[in-house]
Amino acid sequence: MDRQPQRHPDMEKLASLVEQTAIGMLTTLEPDGSLRSRPLVTVRLDSGGRLWFLTSISSPKVAEIDQHRQVNVSYADPKAQSFVSVSGTTQILRDRERIRELWTPEVEPWFPQGAEDPDLALLAVTIESAEYWDAPSRGMVRILGPGPTSEHAKVTPRPHA
Question: What pLDDT, on the 0 to 100 scale, is given for residue 159?
Fold first, then answer.
């Protein structure tokens, strides 16, 4: 994952946790009102507070996003005891140059035709709010209560100054 420098320390911590997990579960709203989650490889967290993914334009998630742009992306690393939940707004882009720029071998199993696949598109999630839990040196119990080694924070990216 390409992790760009963040403007604020709270976003820097969030970026480090997203980077260590890399695969997020994107949750969208289906037409019948039910929630649906699926894994996506995070290819970039840019300095503007956007998560970037590659996707198939023909994927059902794109149709779901067309109807409801609010999504959640969650990351979990149980061994490291770190967890992230991101809420944001989506955008689908068909920018071939940026697709080539963000292409990574980690997504090749899902896109065997490579960066030139005509069905390939970019999915950007602009982070509106996020929350993380990080208890690296203790067990899960640290997340449930305060402790000197556990961290919990709500993060709201700040607009450009």
Answer: 56
